[in-house]
Amino acid sequence: MRIALFSETFLPKVDGIVNTLCHLLQHLEKRGHESVLFAPTGAPARYHNTPIHTYDGLPFPLYPELKLVPPTAHIRRQLEQFQPDVVHVVQPVALGVTGMWHARRLDIPVVASYHTDVPGFAAQWGLGWLQGPIWATFRTIHQQADLNLCPSYATLRQLREHHFPKVSVWTRGVDTQQFQPKWRSDEWREYLTNGRSQAPLLLYVGRLSAEKRVDWIRPLLDQFPEARLAIVGDGPARAELETLFAGTNTVFTGYLRGHDLAQAYAAADIFAFPSANETLGNVVLEAMASGLAVVAAASGGPLDIIHHNRNGLLFQPNSPTDLAEKVGLLLQDNALRNQLAHRARQDAEQRDWATVLDGLLENYAEVMVRKRPYRTPKQKNYKHQSVIT
């Protein structure tokens, strides 16, 4: 197959969308498919076997790291030259919408994937009045696709409630070779606990912004003064959070990648994830694969991953008190913490990327057949068990 992908974000930015795209592009190369990616300026010229066309964009006011690319005439010519069998637009807002527009006029099947709960984030930013217009805009965009994909069943239900058509689940995998307990090291433990390696270590990994509610972890350090906290990530709220956590046993590392990130996960004991507006939560899977006991909100995507009291704990989404109680329970009960961590690792081992992405390839092929019944994919032997329902 020949797949053209459009994304509003890509490297060097670090987030769940970019992580998923990187795994997808590697997988397409491994399976012998051809691909091209359209992305904002700043992305590399190529990623693995995929050439990347880049375009200048303007920062999105509510999310400055997201660059909005205006309609560009060059896209049609490049699409025609590549002759894709299917176009996949990732979280379409601007560049993705342009890609859909041209694909429609070239009669190319379109798959759109929904990744980020922007309406939920708007409420967290104090802009709840924007939720209705945001939902209406996204619904209009996704109505143009032949198939819409989302990361979890919780998100699937949410999209159906807002009348999104033709929606299925495209879940996520985790690299259990990269993220695993054996990478625990004394060096990283010393660094992240600020020299107190015997103390229990809490970990947060993710974007540092208001909607992630990292500030909810702050009272835990007063309630449990023996605990240490490592915050891995960066974002617009970092300076404010550094001020809030000043004087506590907290280490800010900034973004970590590759083996450094894997070692940071493995060095910790408990993964605390306060966000309540996640469509899945890739970092939750990474923490589970790393052998951590996870505490996450009982809402959104984590409900697909965390089974309360089996492989982690869920707290009431709007209760910082319940978050503190759940983390406190794990700090005081080593046996429960170890039991949850062991099961979390076992469950993560069942979520390999190859199976997840082969399921996506099946959906590409199905959309192609529905759109153009007379055509069949050129690539053979790509069919595997689908995880998309």
Describe this entry's structure for a reader:
The protein is an alpha/beta fold. It has two domains: 2-173 and 352-371, Glycogen Phosphorylase B (Rossmann fold, 3-Layer(aba) Sandwich), CATH 3.40.50.2000; 181-348, Glycogen Phosphorylase B (Rossmann fold, 3-Layer(aba) Sandwich), CATH 3.40.50.2000. Helix content is 39%, strand content 19%. It has helices at residues 16-30, 74-82, 95-105, 118-124, 131-142, 153-161, 186-192, 218-223, 238-244, 258-267, 282-289, 302-305, 320-332, 334-348, 353-371; strands spanning 2-7, 34-40, 46-47, 50-55, 58-60, 63-68, 86-90, 110-113, 147-150, 167-169, 201-205, 228-232, 250-254, 270-273, 293-297, 313-315. It has an eight-stranded mixed sheet with strand order 3-4-2-1-7-8-9-10, sandwiched between helices. A six-stranded parallel sheet has the order 13-12-11-14-15-16, with helices on both faces.
